[in-house]
Description:
Elements: H1 2-32, H2 34-38, E1 59-65, H3 74-85, E2 89-95, H4 99-107, E3 115-117, H5 127-130, E4 135-136, H6 137-140, E5 151-152, E6 155-156, E7 159-160, E8 163-165, E9 167-171, H7 172-177, H8 187-200, H9 214-217, H10 225-228, H11 233-237, H12 253-266, H13 279-288, E10 293-294, H14 300-305, E11 314-318, E12 328-333, E13 336-339, H15 345-360, H16 364-368, E14 390-392, H17 404-412, H18 419-430, H19 435-453
Parallel strand pairs: 1-2, 1-3, 12-14
Antiparallel strand pairs: 3-13, 4-6, 5-6, 7-13, 8-12, 9-10, 9-11
Amino acid sequence: MKKELWKRTAAVTIASMMALSLAACSSQGEEKGKDEVSGANVPAINDIALGEDYKDLQASIKILTNRTDIVDTVYKEYAEEFMALYPNITVEYEGITDYEESLQLRLSTGDWGDICYIPSSVDKSELSGFFTPMGDFAVLDGIYNYCQEKTYDGVVYGIANGGTASGVAYNKRVWQEAGITELPKTPDEFIEDLKLIRENTDAIPLYTNFAAGWTMGAWNDYTGIAATGDVDFKNNKLLHMKDPFAPNDDMTGPYAVYYTLYHAVNEKLVEEDPASSDWESSKGRINNGEIATMVLGSWCVEQFKGAGEHPEDIGYMPFPISVNGKQYVSSGGNYSYGINCQASEDNQIASMLYVKWILEESSMFADEGSIPALKNSELPDCLDGLEGAELLSDNPSLEGEEGLYDDMCNESELLTGDYAVSEVLEAALYDSDTLDNLMSTWNEKWTAAQERLGVEVTE
């Protein structure tokens, strides 16, 4: 109880400090004029010609990052490459372990550096109080992915350092040895392929990583775009839908996702004892071919490639659901770069140069195996299995319903965390319940949550 009280008190204090900072920045705007505070002389990111503009600019900038594991190696190399192009600009990185908590406090002071990954605690309405405008959404949305995530009132205040896709990691060599020549596009094709792996190889067809818990929660991520092809499904339609977990004739929607898990487990196509699975060792095991497949976001690919001597064997495919013959992949932005609007004008310009360079010229996306920021860029080689599928991002919630998805998930205890997904695995493993019975119960929970929250059912 004391711990919970401390958290609530800290949250109120942090929120108050951020509000004061926002008010202070707004106050400066009233005194100095809106243009001066927001950086009127700082060019939009799309108006900069790298290597040509601002060659004589002198500045020293600091970048805050959560990547403490590579801040002194990979990120240092990026900084050195940029400084070779702009020798009068010094770039320094600072790694922060407790990133989200630290940034909530440091942003409120205004004296935190020049570039950071915008923490999730900053609401869209607060962006202008902390960060320099990067350009108009109408322009930047045609250039960069995920701009909508840090846009407010038509202005972009942050651009994502690439994105993550929701698909399936697999060992290409094992799948080939099993005799599989074409990646599956439906749940039943996926199950049949797992059977071929069991029959023709020594690998575990599908590793659930059940014991880790959070890895099971990843299955929830496929119930939206991957299962429906609809960018409005997750944040809008689902919330007002009656019985969203019911089966349908074309094997799409949330039911199809949990059908895939249920039958893989029920037909013994997973590890023998899911309760004793081990996340850390599974990385090396999929690298060396002991494991054939894992259902996780594309962030896992580089970890799997780096966990052994066979990085070339790691591939990534769309989740095996097709909507009218087409596959879709849900993708979202990673942390977004934001530039301190209270830094000096020279530092803001230097920061804009660096952000543009790292998004457009660095090797970051190939190094991390993430979806590039530039819309016209090719996917990294490790994600070549996604070619042919359409990558989409969820549309935001309707006005006034911004927190409703989380409320519905928490109230129903569905589509969040690993608890409900674990029910599916256990029912399949022990034959304690059918999938249809389980999904019927979930629909009842969803309806009850809608009634308690006063959600209108329209779908």
